[in-house]
Amino acid sequence: PMAGSTTSLVSRGAGYVERVNASAIAKLAIALGVGRTHPSDKLDLSAGVELQVEPGDHVQQGDVWAVVHHNRDIPPHLLESAEAAITITQDQTRVLPRITRIMLN
């Protein structure tokens, strides 16, 4: 399924992505129907947040760093939190590997 609307989140500054606050993004996604807060909540399978960057990436001011796919209006306070969810630094940060160890039997 495809959502009826998209909203781009843009970088407010230039530099290197240090982190993205997953909690702010998750709260936005749940409000748009991606997840449930109660068992009776209806899921929207076309809604979601598509991250365009990851830690260590360089961004310019105005670059799109995430695209929100939605059919519901985005609550203003959650949009504001999501827009502020990216931390940008001027120093290229050391990015830790996602896999730190492989365990075999």
Would you write up a description of this structure?
With 105 residues, the protein is of the alpha+beta class. 17% of the residues lie in helices and 28% in strands. The protein has helices at 22-31, 76-83, and strands at 5-10, 15-20, 48-51, 58-59, 64-70, 86-89. The strands form 2 sheets. A 3-stranded antiparallel sheet has the order 1-5-3, covered by helices on one side. Strands 4-2-6 form a 3-stranded antiparallel sheet, with no helix packed on it. Helix 1 (22-31) packs antiparallel against helix 2 (76-83).
The strand line-up of the biggest sheet is: 1-5-3
| Largest sheet, strands/sense/barrel | 3 strands, antiparallel
Radius of gyration: 16 Å
Which stretches are low in confidence, meaning pLDDT under 50 for 5 or more residues running? none
Distance between the termini: 40 Å
Query: What is the count of helical runs?
Result: 2
- Measured by DSSP, the beta-strand proportion falls in 25-35%
Number of distinct beta strands: 6
Instruction: Assign the structural class, choosing from mainly alpha, mainly beta, alpha/beta, alpha+beta, or little secondary structure.
Output: alpha+beta
Which series of helices and strands comes N to C?
A: EEHEEEHE
Mass-distribution shape? globular
Return the average pLDDT rounded to an integer.
94
Helix content estimate: 10-25%
For this entry, what is the oligomeric state of its chains?
A: single chain
